[in-house]
Design brief:
- It is a single chain.
- This protein is mostly beta strands.
- The chain has strands at about 5, 10-15, 20-25, 30-40, 45-50, 60, 70-75, 80-85, 90-100, 110, 115-119.
- Helices cover about 0% and strands about 55% of the residues.
């Protein structure tokens, strides 16, 4: 079973950059797709980006494309989200999640981490 834990959140100013990290443990991640989600206050959780662990193939939704970069480090067993040009709409809880290849739903989740962007 895979466990995920986010780190790197906090309070930043508009225009700042922030790098979130997701540490994985419990079993090898080969055969997994990992993802970052964002849940703004009072809104549903939304997908930002995904990355396949083995090949590092990435996908971005419109919300993330151009400002955010997803990456993974096989040596450290971590997945990161580099966020640039942050604005108050990026405020919320960020979650990392994982699913085995071939599954539609993400069944493994971190506890989430708060990011607040002040105007």
């Amino acid at each position: 079973q895979v466990q995920l834990r986010e780190s790197g959140g906090g309070l930043v100013q508009t225009g700042d950059s922030l790098r979130l990290s997701c540490a994985a443990s419990g079993r090898p991640l080969s055969g997994f797709t990992l993802a970052w989600f964002h849940q703004a206050p009072g809104k549903e959780r939304q997908l930002l980006a995904t990355i396949t662990w083995s090949a590092g193939r990435t996908f971005y939704t419109d919300s993330a494309r151009g400002r955010f970069t997803i990456s993974r480090d096989k040596f450290r067993n971590t997945m990161d989200l580099q966020m640039n040009g942050l604005n108050p709409e990026d405020t919320g809880v960020y979650f990392c999640a994982g699913r085995p290849y071939g599954q539609t739903d993400f069944g493994t989740w971190g506890q989430g981490i708060q990011v607040t962007v002040a105007s």
